[in-house]
Amino acid sequence: MRVPLLRSSCLLPLLIASSALAVTMVSVPLIGRAQTVVTNIIPDATLGTVVDSSGAPEGRTTVTITGGTRPGNGPTVFYSFADFNLSRGDIALFDSASASGIVNAIIRVTGGNPSVIEGSLKAPSGVNLIFLNPNGLSVDQLSPYGISGYFVGSTASELHFADGSLFSMTTPAIALSATAIASLGFLDPAGSPTVLADIDAGGALDFEGGAISLVDTSVFSKQRIGVHATSLSLERSNLDVSLLDFLRAPSAIEIEVAEQVNLSGGSRLSTHYGNAPIRIRANEIGIDGSRIAFGFSSNAGIDDISIEARSIRLSNGAAISDSEGGERIRIAASDQIRLERSIIGTFASGIPPAQIVIADLGGAEGSLLVDLEGDSEIFTILGGEPSFGQQTIDIQAHTLRLDDSKVRTGSHSGRASFSIHADVARLLLSGGSEISVGGVESQASGGNLAITARDRVSLVGDSKLIATSDGAAGGNISLSGSPLLLVNDSTISAASTGSALTGRPVNGGNVTLGSAEAPLRAVVLRGQSAIDASSSQAEGGNIAIHANAFVVSPDSNLIATGATSNGSVTIDTPRQRGQARSIR
Length: 584
Prior knowledge:
Helix content: under 10%
Shape: elongated
């Protein structure tokens, strides 16, 4: 049965585009490499391929390849080999591809052995090389200087054309086509297990096949890296795009696999400069002690890092991060997003906005568990001067659970604005966790923290919801939809503390729980918990509680005091039990 590629259309624009960019697709099975590779290029009995070897002045071997078959005097010449191996320092020159009008040189290997390429492949200027060996292809080093067109390497068993015909690696006696190339085909649904060696390419890189594995390997491109496979594993390895000319056409790291993506041992997926976002789609993604990083953006309104999966797990200091300005990170899942001693964050500077979006792919009711534990964080931090940008975090999930962890957005300078919005069924904070917006030693106000929770909100054990500033006015906190439980030193605070760095009054903020039209089912404060909208320099803020029931212990507080005047505390409930130690 013929099995199509994951994205069968991805090859078409690469092979018909008019461009001098080198595009490289490498799919490399696990091949024993203990023995030295010897140049061995042998044509098979089909397609009229001719091979001539001669000694180069430097003592290297140059293999000149002529002949081949060019159907209909069209843009494609086909070559067929029984074996194809090229040792380091040797050259394979596809000379007959220099005929006028040839755009693609397609090479297949039919003898049943894998191919190892350590030397240089060379083609006439502007000619694309497509190299296919279903039994394995190992590219140890690929020079970007021998091919000015595209280089495509794959373990595909078939090459499909626009007229419906195919070029088979396993059935050599088959009609050839002069029409455009449409896609690769794999006879084995899983494809061949693959491993990549170090590659440094001036052009773009694409890896196609089954299970792709990188161990102690660095793959670098100045344009784009793409992976379309069954699975991808990086162990102590790097995939890196550094687009030094950020005015070039958009580039990216694009990964789409059917099963797992795993990064471990300090591995890194990263882009630096320009229009080079990172996009990953898989069933499961595991990042253990490794990093996905984006360096600089000029993509206004576009996701710089976009990750989608059923399940995503970060552990042991793993990070998904942006490090400059104008960034947007979007993480979407249907089952879980779990962080264990790990971070998702942006470090922005200057004036551009930054945004983190956590999205639930589980339908209208939601099914996603976002679980942070062990000092994990989701954050946007703004620094540098001037800092006027808007920083936002939007979380949509069924359950958002934090234990000894934080979700925060804030600034250490400037007058930026901040907001966090969580739309969940359950919000559960414990172990000193906090969700916070605000400025630290800055002119930024406390920002806006809005939570919509359909089931319940629980803050336990010194946990906090915070919209404070120590140099400007306090922020705004609003909660709608669900019962609220604050116990054991937990706090909701929109206070303003410190001096007025802005030169303006630094009033306390506002805390609004429910509304007159839609009161919360209950609000419970116990065990030295507090709701605080105070100001140490100016007017106190306002606290408004609208609930069907309000329960408060004597050791808990509602505070809206100010240095110049107090704010207001409004409790709108038909049922109140207990009395706070202070309502002021």
